[in-house]
Structures are given as C-alpha cells and as structure tokens.
Write a structure and sequence with these properties.
It is a single chain. By secondary structure, this protein is an all-beta fold. It has one domain (3-93): Hexapeptide repeat proteins (UDP N-Acetylglucosamine Acyltransferase, domain 1). 0% of the residues lie in helices and 44% in strands. The chain contains no helices and 13 strands. Strands 1, 2, 4, 6, 8, 9, 11 and 12 form an 8-stranded parallel beta sheet that branches. Strands 3-5-7-10-13 form a 5-stranded parallel beta sheet, with no helix packed on it. The termini are far apart.
C-alpha cells in the first residue's frame, strides 16, 4: 500500500484495517479499526485531514480529498460506493454514498 508523507505528515493505518495494495494514501489520513479501503482508491490528505472511523469502508476507485481547516470524515460504519468522489464533507454514521 503506497503511503506518502507530505509536509512532514504521514498516513496512519490501524493494524486491523485492510488497505488494498493499489490504494494510495497521502498526507493527513487516519484509517481506523476494521476499515476497508478498496483497489485504486485515493485518499488525499494534502490540504485537510481525512478520517475513516471504525468499520467504515471506501470501495474501489473512490477519491477523497480534504479541504483546508476542515476534516473530511466517514463516521463509524459509513460506506462509500465504488467510484464516488468526496471533497471536504462528513458522511454520518451508518450512511451510504452510492456508487458512481
């Protein structure tokens, strides 16, 4: 799994999470326990923090991008469908963003 440091900040992945080897995590990204990050997903914490809370999943080919001074969050057990694009938002607990 490619993890890239930016401005001295490196992604943090809980040991119980699964991040597919083709997913890319950059900068201020926190992947919590029991999370799933699918193939070709891109989580870009270069402008703002991205947080995946416990049990959430980001499926194949999703893009998540932070905004300055705003956390982009998928709360506990949130689901982001294949190919979805999220910028600077909060997906509430148990919610689902449909696939693109």
């Amino acid at each position: 799994m490619p993890c890239y440091e930016i401005n001295g900040i490196r992604p943090v992945v809980d040991p119980s999470a699964f991040v597919h080897p083709t997913a890319i995590l950059t900068g201020d990204v926190i992947v919590g326990p029991r999370c799933y990050v699918g193939p070709a997903a891109s989580l870009r914490g270069d402008f703002g923090r991205i947080v995946l809370e416990a049990g959430s999943n980001v499926q194949d080919c999703c893009v998540m991008h932070g905004f300055p001074s705003t956390d982009t969050v998928v709360e506990e057990d949130g689901h982001i469908g294949h190919g979805a694009v999220l910028h600077g938002c909060v997906v509430k607990r148990n919610a689902m963003v449909g696939m693109n």
